[in-house]
Amino acid sequence: MSSRAAVPALSAEWPRGTEELAAVRNAVQAADLGPLPEWDLTDLYPGIDSPAFQDDLARSVSESRAFAERYAGRIAEIAAGPDASARLGEAVRAFEQIEDLMGRLMSYAGLVYSGDTTDETRAKFYGDTRERLTAASGDLLFFGLELNRIEDAVLDAAMAEGPLAHYRPWIEDLRREKPYQLDDRTEKLFLEKSVTSNAAWDRLFNETIAALRFSVQGERLTLEPTLNKLQDPDGAVRKEAALALGETLRANLRVFTLITNTLAKDKEISDRWRGFRDVADARHLSNRVEPEVVAALVDAVREAYPRLSHRYYRLKAKWFGVDALPYWDRNAPLPKVEQRTIPWAQARDTVLDAYATFSPDMAGIAKRFFDGGWIDAPTRPGKAPGAFAHPTVPSAHPYVLVNYQGKPRDVMTLAHELGHGVHQVLAAPNGALMAPTPLTLAETASVFGEMLTFRRLLGGTTDPTQRRAMLAAKVEDMINTVVRQIAFYSFERKVHLARAKGELTAEQINELWMSVQAESLGPAITLDAGYEPFWAYIPHFIHSPFYVYAYAFGDCLVNSLYGVYARAEPGFVERYFALLSAGGSKPYGELLKPFGLDASDPGFWQIGLGMIEGMIAELEAMETA
Fold it and tell me: Domain spanning 19-29+38-196: which superfamily?
């Protein structure tokens, strides 16, 4: 989300006792990292009780109602009448302005909530805001439905020129939904019930995860610091952290199993009513990607498991002097390699320098995140785990959230999220309706930013031991992005298909998890007892089913893009900026054509997978050098 120094409206005292001690401990740890920025959300609103927020919330309700009163039931008549392009263009523009306003409100509520999901005041603020905006959205629902009921020839004529022509990409995207839309009353029911169905279960997951504590080395840690221990140089610490994760997750499996069962059933009901045939079809539609393209990606990655993950982990086990690594050593730092703690200022300079080498303009956009208070970096009790970039709305700016702990991977995460942020800034001029990027391209700038940062660091490293460690870390990141995410996708498919036949027990879900993990990781990783419930903390399964293949899509795509860049083809930077600036205004196939890339070609995925293979081969060659 966002970077920055906390503002009074967002500051909240943590509970006393264990949490207070954790806060003190985090502050001591942060001293080694230098000052860590906390985001400043005042660019959106001064505070949760501010008159500006309340006024905008009331305005979003009144303007939504006024829009419905003016246009509901009249869209077909306007489209068939005189000046259709101008009158429909005016309607779409008014709709877009309301969407931007509502997006600003909901973005602010979500960012406040992510700062501490265990705080009741923030949770209530988020929940109340979502309820009010969902109700207001009900007044706007008719618009897309009525646009989709207009005859193609009539609408095409209106979009041929004039004001409506500007919105053609959005309307054409909207019409892809036409075969799956329901009548107005059913659509409104689905929308209103979302507050007490999938949104409520999402929130329960967030608050349950945030409240969990894991006992490691006499401390009770939240999720992020515990996961960080899996990269500790001490194998005993890694093992203790892994066992603590398994123990606590297993103790809470009833809740996670109930959430998973409920959301899978909720999705099945929605898919059935809308007419989707496959469990992932709705995601493919929202991504604007053909199911056969995703299937080709999945098949290519699964076929490559032995050449990628199996091969690499066999090599890593050899480095550790064993035949197979326990699962808690999968991402362990290499033995006999000095582990560095990277201060925040150094991480910042590393990423900005890497971006500047590619394009000073890109570095300039990224620098605004640091200078403008758009990044939230420290780990805190209750803070949302992981990392993300939130685009908010075009009338504002994105925010980035990371949980920075000074590891080299944390620098890569920063580079990743800033890539998203740059993409979101460049796409914003398309407006609230066409700025959002489909997931097929949403990971492009983020993974490209990581690759730029990695290549910059690797190029400046001459020590063979450090170079091997950096190359190994990058291979692991790529395996986690490609192999692991496709395994996640396979797991989701198994869960949703099995849930369609009846409710699943925790042990049944555990078995599905272990089956895909064994297949993807291979025989050089030992999946000991305790690993079974690790599926429970993955947020993507809850918040955005089948999202995960977008990471593999993006990584393979970026590997291909980077290959074009490495050949020093003239005009690459300009074409790359054009791709990012398009947002959601053009299909991904059209945006890739200037680079000579075609994701519909089954052989396309081998380009990206081949780059990972090449890095593993380079590591193997270091063993014999």
Answer: Oligopeptidase f, N-terminal domain (1.20.140.70)
